[in-house]
Amino acid sequence: MTASAVVSAPKELQLLTLGQFQISYGGTALAGLASRKAEALLVYLAVTGQRHSREALAALLWDDLASERARGNLSVVLTSLRQQVGSLLISDRRSVGLAGDSIDCDVVLLRRALQQAQQPGLALSGDRIEMLAQALRSYRGDFLQGFSLRDGAEFDAWMRDEQEHLRHEVVAGYELLIDSYQRQGNLVEAIGHTQRIVQLDPWHEPAHGWLMTLLDRAGQRAAALAHYAAYRRQLQEELGVVPSTELQTINEAIWRSAAEGRRPETGDRSTASNLRGMPQFATSFLGRQRELEHISRMLADQNCRLLTLLGPGGSGKTRLAAAAATAAAAHLAQGSVFVALAR
Fold it and tell me: 13-105 adopts what CATH topology?
């Protein structure tokens, strides 16, 4: 059995904190918690994965109150939580924690996958690539997005720090995937994950350069140049600055290659030489990552002789097909040909 085939049984207490917020116990959404502070306490204990003193927790959640009153409020919240999660809450007169073996928290699971992917001496390939990609898909948005506490400045500060750290960790994970897919010559996956970095961190300038280079290598020079123009406008309008010298150099190199009619360098086989009649688009291809991955897998299946994309008019079938064909061109013996049947 491969690592990707192993399925763990769901834990008693499950916390979703990325892009949405939900606490479930025994497979059912946990309702009736005493307050928002009770939710915050559960999240803090699950994410940190350790026991904390009652004094520290009281100061974290009620930093505006005197110590004695804050500890009294904490006792009320703990009593409510015991009624909800029973023995999963571990507390005594001095400290409070959670029974970690019975808890699933999406942040903890994501960080564990990122740490495993970055273990020195282990190549990121095969099942490990898919496991990392699957883990990163759980990052649907910022940690505790939209969550806040009244009179909880200390908790809010911790939450913002976690959001920032996690965002950097996720970007680093995507960088690993991009590098691995480039080594495989899988441009569709490399482009899709680079676009995800840009979505998560619009000011991550190296990612804009990677995206332009990958689009150029995939034969989508117009899209690469249009992406630079859009990013330059965004920088000017929102920050009043211009792209870095490095990004300007990438843009100029793509312009020169286009003007001189040079084909992009893609390794042993030129993707551009394996594309015939492929339409060019003025904007970069964003989103549809799940569909692109599914098409890529089907095209790689030797038993797949015909693949048809169905959908209402104007839903983006042509754009999706062109992106998939462009990415697969280097791996197809006779390349890809675009034939327009509409008149």
Answer: Arc Repressor Mutant, subunit A (1.10.10)
